[in-house]
Amino acid sequence: MIVTEGLAKVFKIGKKGKEEIVAVDSLSLSVKEGEAFGFLGPNGAGKTTTVRMLTGLIAPTRGRASVNGLELGKENRAIRKCVGILTESPGMYERLSAEKNLSIFASLYDVEDVPGQARKFLQMLGLWGRRQDPVGSFSKGMRQKLAIARALLHDPKVLFMDEPTSGLDPEAAKMVRDFIESLKARGRTIFICTHNLDEADRLCDRIGIIKQRLIAVDTPAALRQRLYGRKVVFHLRELNSKWVKVVSALPFVKEVRAIGEKLVLSLENPDRDNPEIVRCLVKAGADIQFVGELRHSLEEIYLETLRDIEDER
Description:
Number of strands: 14
Radius of gyration: 24 Å
Strand content: 25-35%
CATH architecture of the largest domain: 3-Layer(aba) Sandwich
Mean pLDDT: 88
CATH class of the largest domain: Alpha Beta
Structural class: alpha/beta
CATH superfamily of the largest domain: P-loop containing nucleotide triphosphate hydrolases
Oligomer: single chain
Number of helices: 11
Largest sheet: 6 strands, mixed
Distance between the termini: 33 Å
Helix content: 25-40%
């Protein structure tokens, strides 16, 4: 659905354009149809520049890309017809009503049933009751809903979303996340640039971490596994040193740490190995209260990945 090969963007600055800023460097990436892909990186990492290139708004300096089978640079007009874009700060005609705003943009996309599509998305996003009100009277959350409706009016194959919940209150942010989940369920391909790491963890099938260059791409679970392995915590009524020896002797246990009344074990495959560990501990006389997996947050993964890159430099 989205494929890039060595995509790069260099901006010329300064007098006579002699200085260069590399915004995106050699980006090679593939996003599958129906996938929700999260694009993470610090400010200035190249996330928004990437979206602008992929939607045909700015030309890449070098490299190739295709969106929905359409080649960037040769079929930009067709690309813009098949994608929807939610920018971080979407502009609207503030003196016009919500319905009129959607009607204008639907006409630009040659939508056949303009009133029907406007009604469909205003109702879907809970704005139908305010359809005749000027957009200038809307809260930020309502504007974001309207911007999402605008991005979906022409039923795009691919939806690009830049910080979709930035600055929203918790209720509005949850509404936007729920709506993204519903789009995922319908098989829409979604490319999300976000700083909200918890949001990316919940919404995205895979994530890419970028800082001009693409640093890592994988599922959140696989990135956790790659950086930290899987750690299982056995909560005991009390800790006995002999139980540390019992589990350490098991060939599939990589590491054992005793913390308070808990044993923290590093395992390759907890789903397979946990039952054997439980049997060994019980046989040795341990009272197991419960077992849980120690999950590292996506924030930890993100920061650790960026630190590794800085250390390499």
